[in-house]
Automatic annotation (TrEMBL):
SUPFAM superfamilies: Winged helix' DNA-binding domain
Name recorded for this polypeptide: DNA-binding transcriptional regulator YhcF (GntR family)
Keyword field: DNA-binding, Transcription, Transcription regulation
Coiled-coil spans in chain: none
Native species: Frigoribacterium faeni
Pfam families registered for this protein in UniProt: GntR
Domain HTH gntR-type: residue ranges: 6-74
């Protein structure tokens, strides 16, 4: 369910984002309400609300007054772009630095990656 590594609201926001990325929640489609998220995950509605509001602030979800929460147009592309940038910063750049420190040139590094992909 949830772990203690990060706040519950952040973990819920991450799960919703993942569902936007994988197409479970398509753009312009309604997502569960705060109370539905709270009931499903057995968390406080305020915690679920904080997760939803975080995604509204990030432009991933938007509110239709009196109707509910919906996935924003372009949300999937924005999330993909953010994840790619985080991947580059967290994995590719450190990999390149380590390769350089070990004297591994780019063609050799690419060869190593290709070998691991088989």
């Amino acid at each position: 369910m949830f772990d203690e590594s990060t706040p519950i609201f952040q973990q819920l926001a991450d799960r919703i984002e993942q569902r936007v990325l994988d197409g479970t929640y398509p753009e312009d489609e309604q997502v569960a309400s705060t109370n539905e998220f709270a009931a499903f995950y057995r968390i406080n509605p305020a915690t679920a609300g904080k997760a939803v509001n975080l995604l509204v602030d990030r432009g991933i979800l938007y509110k239709r007054r009196g109707v509910g929460m919906f996935v924003a147009a372009g949300a999937r592309d924005r999330l993909s772009e953010q994840r790619r940038a985080a991947f580059a910063a967290g994995y590719v750049r450190p990999l390149m630095r380590e390769a350089a420190a070990l004297g591994i040139d780019l063609p050799t590094l690419m060869s190593l990656i290709e070998q691991e992909n088989t």
